[in-house]
Amino acid sequence: MTNQSHTPSTSPTKTTVTVLGLGAMGQALAGAFLEAGHPTTLWNRTPGKGDDLVARGATRAATAAEAVRASDLVVVCLYDYDVSQAVLGPIAADLSGRTLVNLTSDTPERSREAAAWAAGQGIDYLDGAILVPVTVIGTADALLFHSGPKSVYEKHEGTLKALGGNTVHLGEDHGLAAVYDNALLDFFWTSMSGLVHAFALAGADGVKGADLAPYLSALLAIFPESIASTAVEVDSGEYPGEQAPLVTEAANVDHIIHASEHRGLDVESLNGIKSVLDRAIAKGHGTDGWTAVIEAVRAPVPGAAAH
Ligand SMILES: NC(=O)c1ccc[n+]([C@@H]2O[C@H](COP(=O)([O-])OP(=O)(O)OC[C@H]3O[C@@H](n4cnc5c(N)ncnc54)[C@H](OP(=O)(O)O)[C@@H]3O)[C@@H](O)[C@H]2O)c1
């Protein structure tokens, strides 16, 4: 093991932290712990990552077990839960009696499985999810979710806040961080997909991205109000459609599909949207508003799952 001290110096009074996984995110997390003065130990499968962190005072461990034994708090940030379980499984005895926080992204089911495994090994366990890119880690704006026992969260809240000012405990159910993460990224990725398609559609008629961009931004201004009203409608199960009934919106989507097809563009996602709209209308929601599509989303076509 090597340990070189450089600024900012770590403090022996601060909670000791181990970071398992030095991908782009793991390195950012370790850097934030160091910045906050936590004695920080690192491990990564492939050697050679994190030299700058060691130069800043982190300790590099030769094995994951050695890394875990160095700290009270162990933070994991790996590719997915198959990988994190493959790393953690063999070192369960070393983790026993410590707090493990898994900030790897995956599904709520994998989080709950991991929590059940940790409970069986005597490991205090929090699940987590990171909602910001690496450059935002350690800033006041960084949003990170945690779920699991509140007492465990409160014990380490001060240390976890080193990763981001917007660090939230969602509840005792270990799956909640992934529930929120999956839902927010569902919105993000489908929106990003629509954004790219919009640029392709305008671009097919020679409109530059830079010329369309200001109007896309203007459109975004309606989203906070749309999100708030959609939440009310989803929670109440009432979908007022006087101003814009689903049948009218479906015709609008049809126009975009036809224009896209005419320009030789991919229409698979748009056809998917139209198919869900049509099923909502077939279920009697034609005069309801857009939010009524949730009734079709909740009743997918049997056997239509991709995998
Ligand atoms: N990057 C972001 O902006 C961002 C934002 C939010 C959330 N996240 C989440 O953070 C997690 C890590 O992301 P990342 O960007 O750091 O990914 P990454 O740069 O691809 O790093 C992946 C990490 O997993 C390790 N790994 C992969 N397969 C392994 C195996 N079989 N055994 C042991 N270690 C293995 C890699 O080790 P090697 O170096 O040995 O390959 C590396 O440490 C992901 O769940 C991601 O969704 C990332």
Q: What's the topology here?
A:
Blueprint: E1 2-3, E2 17-20, H1 24-35, E3 40-43, H2 51-55, E4 59-60, H3 64-69, E5 73-76, H4 81-88, H5 92-95, E6 99-102, H6 108-120, E7 124-130, E8 143-147, H7 150-160, E9 166-169, H8 176-203, H9 209-220, H10 223-236, H11 246-262, H12 268-285, H13 294-297
Parallel strand pairs: 2-3, 2-5, 3-4, 5-6, 6-7, 8-9
Antiparallel strand pairs: 1-4, 7-8
Helix pairs in contact: 11-12
Characterization of this structure:
The chain has 307 residues and is an alpha/beta fold. It has 2 domains: 2-172, NAD(P)-binding Rossmann-like Domain (Rossmann fold); 180-297, N-(1-d-carboxylethyl)-l-norvaline Dehydrogenase, domain 2 (Orthogonal Bundle). The chain contains 13 helices and 9 strands. It has helices spanning 24-35, 51-55, 64-69, 81-88, 92-95, 108-120, 150-160, 176-203, 209-220, 223-236, 246-262, 268-285, 294-297, and strands spanning 2-3, 17-20, 40-43, 59-60, 73-76, 99-102, 124-130, 143-147, 166-169. The chain has a 9-stranded mixed sheet, with helices on both faces. Strand 2 (17-20), helix 1 and strand 3 (40-43) form a beta-alpha-beta unit. Helix 11 runs antiparallel to helix 12. The protein is elongated. The two termini are 44 Å apart. The relative contact order is 0.08. Bound molecules: NADP nicotinamide-adenine-dinucleotide phosphate. NADP nicotinamide-adenine-dinucleotide phosphate (NAP) binds at residues 21-26, 44-46, 49, 77-79, 83, 86-87, 104-105, 130, 133-134.
